[in-house]
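Re: [help] complex structure
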Amino acid sequence: MQVKSFIAVLFMLFTVQISSAQISSLDKFFNKHQEDPLFTVVTISPKLFQMFAKLDLDEESEDVKEMIQQITSLRILARDSMDGTKLYQDAFTQLTSSEFEELITVRDGSENVRFLIREDGSEVIKQLVLLVGGSDSFVLLDITGNIDLKNIGKLGKALDIPGGEHLEKVGTE
Amino acid sequence: MKALLLVLGTLFVYQASAQSNSLDEFFNAHHNSEEVNKIQLGKFALTFAGWFIDDPTARKIAKKSNSARFLITEGKHRVTKSNVERLFKQLDREGFESLINIRDGKDKIELLILEENDSIKNVVGIVSSSDEFLLANFNCNLNKAELESLITQSF
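Output below.
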């Protein structure tokens, strides 16, 4: 009986370990590169999005406001003046080996662009990752929240962030 | 007379409650060097300074702030990474929350706020690079409507 309990506990611990490892593959990728001074890293905290969600901004930004209200956090890892192809491939391999699925692949000039999503099982997109790899740049943009793919492009325009110009492709493809 | 002293004492305590002990310590630890510039402005000075600021957003921030202080270092005096990390940990314990963090090469920018009862009571901005450091701290009382106005004006 004691052995069975011990095995059950070990099994549960093992399962938890695997689950946490799968969830944090993106975190691992970020952690690996975010201290490297060659990368630009931007992190917008949930707090800022919460503040935006409470504000009554003017009507012209109503769509953007609605979009922002559903976002919980945003982070960007970017590097230019380097061949981003290998990093792009490494990121894609790591993310799709865990809980991310590929949504769209686009080739835009010399850049490869991929959108990956994570759903919560109820077809609500909880996380959108944009990967851009080109001959002279790499961008990883990670957005979490309840994401509306039709309007996510407006967020890119409003925030003027690296890789943001590619977000419009999600709604149109 | 007693009532007046009590009210004044309460106001002083209220004012002090939005101050940060860790920021006070940080300022005190770094202001003695010749390569450090420390500027402190009270309410009157901020209002006065606001008359000369062209940017409407900055002018509004100056008007709504009770006090502001700046610590600027350059040259040989270094604010080390561990100094800054220690400050962030202390600010976190005091209830400050990070809004945005940007690192571009060796340059870093971070913006933190302290919120109480849906009003922003304290704002800290830190800009650091390999040879310069700036810490700006505003003690204020910005409510939601004022923040909306600031943001709308900025964009």
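Residues 23-172 of chain A form one domain.
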